[in-house]
Write a structure and sequence with these properties.
Blueprint: H1 2-5, H2 15-19, E1 28-31, H3 44-47, H4 51-66, H5 72-88, E2 92-96, H6 98-108, H7 117-120, H8 128-131, E3 171-174, H9 183-189, E4 195-197, E5 206-207, E6 216-221, E7 226-234, E8 237-242, H10 268-278
Parallel strand pairs: 1-2, 2-8
Antiparallel strand pairs: 3-4, 3-6, 5-7, 6-7, 7-8
Helix pairs in contact: 4-5
Length: about 290
């Protein structure tokens, strides 16, 4: 939506394109409210009897079988590993909402089953939590997965269900960086405001205690212990995670209409999304030695 508004051309890719090695044709990949764990967005409790949910489950299972997987979670693991390799080889990854934490959760759970039987037909590995390998993740460590299918949450990375932040006090601050020495985070944070109004999502913000050392926190609600906007390097590439669903829709619900960006021309929240399209052009000037 932001790219369309900014008249930036783009292609839509999904599991088929990823598993067909088409990511090598691109420099930049944007992930939004995807669920990489194979739990169909954890919508089971509220929407399992809705036709759109049943259709989505069937479509995902059909796609998994097409690639030789018996379960959607196995398909999503393969997709996640391919994206991880894309970044390692020099790609730029930008993710929002549930695509942030579910991506890392799936990387950590590569050798175990964290899905309840209602999602994949077989039980969770009873030792799944102990088998999580945090060395494989980009951003998060020491998190605990939420395996109850009736809880609309993937892990304790996200703060949506535990935060005590009133809507009228929901803001996060962007950090200042030196354009001379830190051109990439400077570009990623460039904005006409340094205090950005908060917005919710299935993944709203990240618990700071579960962020890996070395990850660059670029936006936070310090008093709440939340990070909203984080960045890091992996291999030859970089990744950026941005919590929340829609910067101009505080509590976006299933079925809500999309935001009309023509009415939000000076959105500081959307500016951060567009910054992530522009920053790959930045080149750090070599220092004299």
């Amino acid at each position: 939506m932001a790219l369309t508004y900014a008249e930036i051309s783009y292609d839509i890719v999904y599991d088929d394109e990823v598993l067909s090695n088409e990511l090598s044709n691109y420099d930049w990949l944007h992930l939004h409210h995807e669920d990489f764990t194979g739990q169909h967005g954890k919508f089971y409790a509220s929407y399992r009897n809705m036709q759109w949910y049943k259709d989505e489950v069937k479509d995902n299972l059909d796609r998994a079988k097409k690639y030789g997987f018996s379960k959607v979670s196995e398909l999503k693991k393969a997709v996640s590993q391919t994206i991880r390799k894309f970044v390692e080889n020099g790609g730029f990854l930008f993710a929002m909402c549930s695509a942030t934490d579910t991506f890392d959760i799936t990387l950590a759970a590569d050798d175990t089953d964290i899905c309840n039987h209602v999602f994949d037909g077989d039980p969770i590995d009873e030792h799944a939590q102990e088998k999580l390998d945090y060395n494989k993740t980009f951003a998060f460590t020491d998190f605990k997965v939420e395996t109850n299918p009736y809880v609309y949450e993937f892990s304790d990375i996200d703060v949506t269900l535990t935060r005590k932040v009133n809507r009228d006090e929901d803001y996060f601050m962007l950090f200042d960086f030196s354009a001379k020495w830190d051109p990439v985070p400077t570009m990623l944070c460039q904005n006409h405001k340094n205090m950005i109004k908060g917005f919710m999502g299935q993944t709203t913000a990240f618990k700071k205690d579960l962020i890996k050392p070395g990850v660059l926190i670029m936006g936070e609600n310090k008093s709440a212990g939340e990070a909203r906007y984080i960045h890091g390097k992996f291999g030859k590439g970089t990744w950026t995670f941005y919590g929340g669903h829609d910067p101009e829709d505080y509590q976006h619900l299933v079925g809500d209409p999309p935001t009309d960006l023509n009415l939000k021309k000076n959105s500081a929240g959307y500016r951060l999304i567009l910054n992530n399209v522009l920053f790959p052009a930045a080149k750090k000037k070599k220092r004299k030695t």
